[in-house]
Amino acid sequence: MSKIIAFTGSNSSTSINDQLLQYTLNSLVKASVDYIDLKTLSIPIFSEDIEKSSGIPDDIKSLKAKIDVASALIVAVNEHNGAMSAFFKNITDWLSRTDPKYLQDKKILLLATSPGEGGAKFCLDYTIGNFEKFGGTIVDHFSLPSFQNNFSKSGLSDDYAQGLKDSVSNFENDLNPA
């Protein structure tokens, strides 16, 4: 069985993307996933001066080690002004300093949601390019617009439930081909 890790690119305690991620993890059929709460990491804002004086932060080294042993990732990204949040961008900046191909051979399922009708699609596009640049393979992605109208703890609205199910199935089938 593939080793999968999952995390959300938001540092909000009420993150709607984390809610979508947790819902998605509970819907997995063929996979077991280790969830990593990035909010618990202690990471300064990236700076070459900090890197020169203190090196790579220990929490980044630990996260990189977890990525290294995983074969796949499920990542929920939140959108701030059309890109990933500064919190998550900072983490990816530090990770890229450990290895310019820190996602090499990693299969990735990307998720995103937003309160608005765009469903964080700009962020998904940005993150796809970002992750591919660092060697990752995006197996599938899912965008949920208008979170408050289309999500509840019991499930997604009929308009989007099948789309998420298909994305998860594609991801799991890619990891465990018949």
TrEMBL record:
Gene3D superfamilies, alphabetized: 3.40.50.360
Classification via SUPFAM superfamilies: Flavoproteins
Domain NADPH-dependent FMN reductase-like intervals: 3-141
Superkingdom of the organism of origin: Bacteria
GO CC annotations on file: cytosol
InterPro entries named among the record's database cross-references: Flavoprotein-like_sf, FMN_Rdtase-like_dom, NAD(P)H-dep_reductase
GO molecular function: FMN binding; oxidoreductase activity
Protein name as it appears in the record: NADPH-dependent FMN reductase
Organism field: Psychroflexus gondwanensis ACAM 44
